[in-house]
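Summary of Year 1 activities. Much of the first year was spent building the evaluation harness for sequence design. The harness presents a backbone, in tokenized form, and records the residue chosen at every position. We chose the following record to illustrate the format because it has been used consistently in internal testing since the harness was completed.
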């Protein structure tokens, strides 16, 4: 029977609980958000004893359903003040699913100082002192744990940024090679883990695809069909496996939606120097990999392994990271981008938030646009915990207030990712309205706006953007509950067999009789839960807006402004 592992950091009690009936049909984001609404006071201090960290595999995690090993992490965000689900690859989700762990709930707060490690295996779970890991970067922590236990363990950990309770700290887990770089980066949940005094969670289990399946024959048929649906699609089966997510760099640049110089321009003449094609070329020249799976069972393999000149390896460099440390700062040196990415991975910081924050610092004149060494030097202040380091760890909105900058690309306190909302307006609607704060993955309208996947909605016009974002936010919430990678959406949107096949896999695993309409209802319910939490936390319609400069400043080359009216934004969740 599936279990919930509850860890009380006040009493140090560790116990397994039966799964309540109301949580039985939930997984991933569906479960984390429901448990946060049920158990976390919406107005509580995010870094206090009443907040909880909920870690959950998806409904299909632990099976050989293709690309189903995503991990959901939830809690009240110290960055936004609202509910948060942050999603990561790595090897933890498949192990938890195989062990029958529905969720790990970290609650309470120790009265004394100190660091702890949660050790979980099939024999049980225990909380042990881990002061020897305190202050160490995530790469060292993961290496130590793999040497101490075995090289098959999954290590969920935070870096010094999380221990110092910085609001943009993330938590990471490793891939199969032991790279500590698979981040639940957004929203500061690493700081929540740090506030609990928990430095690491070690999952010692050799199982990967051992979750129970009620009808294994039907499951195999559906999983095989879904694999073919993914691999037959030009984005999932060709573009992403060849160049990774950074294949988007030149595409978004050509569309005029690439945020450059802190969202001042829409094109960068050196975009190709930090794009996916260049990354693949350099990685292979240096003995790295242009394609790599972020979790076991992924058939899209859109990640990469990039060897740096100092001998270290940055794996991966995702598109959004390459953007925020590249064109956003007018930096065109891929090695500098990799270095900034590596620092974030090691200190435990969300790369997107760090890039947006450095953009604000450049706007303020603290560093210069185009000065890679200055950006590296500034980011190195985070580990030292200096005043500048803490401002950077506080995120873009904090940096804006500290230096008197009003052109801060953030919604609900969270930095806006790599698609300018003036020339990718569907994403603009998502940034403004998602309960998560600015988050491209919450409703990825790049699909229809730019890639022409699932239809086409002109990215520079307002028509159709609200409906597009609404449908994508509903679908995404459902996908996040399954443990499937968001990128399956490219194929699912273009193939009418996509959603029914996902439903076939779920029904075969659990013996249910769900229909595609039930999946839509699940996505809508998740969003309602998240909106309810935020409303109780004090959020209003006024929080569902983009920063003012997007509505007043024209973006080159299309001379566009964000012109979707407030009353239209207020209709996004009208379902």
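For this record, the design step produced the sequence shown next.
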């Amino acid at each position: 029977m599936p279990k919930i592992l509850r860890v009380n950091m006040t009493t140090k009690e560790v116990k397994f609980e039966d799964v309540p009936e109301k949580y039985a049909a939930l997984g991933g984001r569906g479960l984390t958000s429901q448990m946060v609404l049920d158990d976390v006071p919406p107005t509580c201090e995010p870094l206090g004893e009443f907040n909880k960290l909920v870690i959950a595999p998806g409904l299909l995690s632990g099976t050989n359903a293709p690309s189903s090993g995503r991990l959901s992490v939830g809690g009240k965000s110290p960055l936004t003040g609202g509910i948060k689900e942050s999603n990561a690859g790595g090897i933890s989700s498949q192990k938890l699913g195989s062990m029958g762990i529905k969720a790990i709930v970290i609650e309470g707060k120790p009265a004394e100082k100190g660091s702890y490690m949660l050790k979980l295996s099939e024999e049980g779970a225990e909380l042990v002192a881990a002061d020897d890991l305190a202050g160490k970067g995530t790469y060292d922590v993961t290496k130590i744990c793999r040497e101490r236990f075995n090289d098959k363990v999954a290590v969920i950990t935070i870096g010094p940024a999380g221990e110092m309770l910085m609001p943009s700290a993330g938590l990471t887990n490793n891939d199969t090679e032991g790279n500590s770089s698979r981040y639940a980066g957004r929203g500061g949940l690493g700081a929540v883990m740090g506030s609990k005094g928990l430095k690491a969670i070690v999952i010692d289990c050799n199982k990967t695809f051992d979750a129970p399946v009620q009808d294994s024959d039907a499951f195999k048929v559906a999983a095989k069909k879904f694999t073919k649906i993914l691999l037959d699609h030009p984005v999932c089966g060709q573009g992403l496996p060849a160049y990774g997510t950074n294949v988007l760099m030149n595409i978004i640049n050509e569309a005029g939606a690439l945020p450059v110089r802190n969202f001042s321009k829409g094109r960068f003449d050196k975009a190709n120097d930090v794009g996916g094609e260049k990354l693949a070329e350099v990685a292979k020249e240096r003995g790295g990999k242009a394609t790599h799976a972020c979790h076991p069972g992924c058939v899209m393999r859109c990640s990469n392994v990039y060897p740096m000149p100092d001998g270290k390896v940055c794996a991966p460099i995702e598109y959004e990271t390459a953007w925020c440390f590249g064109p956003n700062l007018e930096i065109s040196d891929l090695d500098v981008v990799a270095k900034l990415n590596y620092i974030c991975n090691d200190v435990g910081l969300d790369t997107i938030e760090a890039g947006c924050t450095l953009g604000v610092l450049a706007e303020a004149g603290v560093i210069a646009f185009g000065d890679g060494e200055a950006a590296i030097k500034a980011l190195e202040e985070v580990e030292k915990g200096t005043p500048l380091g803490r401002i950077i760890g506080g995120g873009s909105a904090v940096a804006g207030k500290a230096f008197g900058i009003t052109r801060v690309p953030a919604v609900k306190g969270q930095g806006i990712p790599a698609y300018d909302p003036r020339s990718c307006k569907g994403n603009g609607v998502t940034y403004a309205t998602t309960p998560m704060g600015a988050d491209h993955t919450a409703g990825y309208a790049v699909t229809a706006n730019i890639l022409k996947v699932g239809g086409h909605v002109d990215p520079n016009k307002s028509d159709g953007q609200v409906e597009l974002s609404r449908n994508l936010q509903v679908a995404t919430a459902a996908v996040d509950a399954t443990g499937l990678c968001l990128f399956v959406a490219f194929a699912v949107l273009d193939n009418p067999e996509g959603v029914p096949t996902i439903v076939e896999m779920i029904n075969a695993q659990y013996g249910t009789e769900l229909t595609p309409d039930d999946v839509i209802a699940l996505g809508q319910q998740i969003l309602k839960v998240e909106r309810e939490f935020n409303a109780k936390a004090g959020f209003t319609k006024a929080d569902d807006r983009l920063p003012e400069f997007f509505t007043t400043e024209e973006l080159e080359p299309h001379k566009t402004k964000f012109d979707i009216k407030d009353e239209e934004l207020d209709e996004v969740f009208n379902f």
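The CA atoms of residues 231 and 237 lie 4 Å apart. Quantitative recovery figures across the full test set are reported in Table 2.
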